[in-house]
Amino acid sequence: MTAPEPAHETEIKLEYETAPFLHSLFANDARELKYLEEKLGVRSVTRDGWILFAGPERGVKASAAVFADLEQARRQGGVIGARDFRLAVDLVAEGGGSVSELSGVRLLGVRGRKPVMPKTPRQLEYLKAMEKNDVVFGLGPAGTGKTYLAMAMGLSLLKAKRVGRVVLTRPAVEAGEALGFLPGDLREKVAPYLRPLYDAIHDMIGHEEGERYLADGTIEIAPLAFMRGRTLVRSFVILDEAQNTTREQMFMALTRLGEESRMVITGDGSQVDLKPNVPSGLFEAEKALAGVPGIDFVRFSGVDVVRHPVVGRIIEAYDAHRSSPL
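^ thats the sequence. predicted structure below, dont judge the formating
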């Protein structure tokens, strides 16, 4: 049997105006180039303002495509971190998406604050879905940016005067301690459940402006129980932690929408805190609303986790463990 011929080797040299600009494309850490070499099967050498790739033609061309994508993202004002570099390599290797497309979408970012940008293709899909649809479900594990991006979209539409207010709500599920035993009125009792929403607002637009909007009702944060009987007109509504709604609560929330309003529902079906034998309203909604015009579902996975990298690995490990036979 004749041995297969070795793949034709080639090389390409990319040159940039300065060494610092080139280094910024691989997160100022030459060790990141090892990831590209292993993923695309090439060798790399870099000095001063140039980088050379050598190896099979397919891998060399892919490496050049990675750096073209990163260069465009950088010239658009993006900052390339290690995660961005590896994502660019993965996207080229898998034949879809680009980091420059992600960096081209920016929400907020006023008065010296960093803009909110999608970090993964699925996050970009989520933002586009919110632009196009009246109701969007963002489903998936913690750390994928479901609520944070919904908040950024809501505040962006508010700033652009496309909505008159942002309404944030979530069910206050008793987490090991009955609410009746906690001090204060109902708002004070549920404050700990709503704290992450306050934190996101202050992070995006600053404490002073955030508190002003909260004080005058432009931004309203309330437990889901406060939504009953209302019609929300010209509002951007975010229902967070929707896996902890009952079927009745979910139906009630969805039917609060009035004219010129939108709703984003976020949830993680693997973290239901309802009592045993109480079905989740999120699960019913997924089945009942599939294919309904104006409603879209975006499903995230562990690869979309944008917290510490180990969080994604934890989620994947648990998913594998729970799906394996006992």
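The first helix runs from residue 19 to 25.
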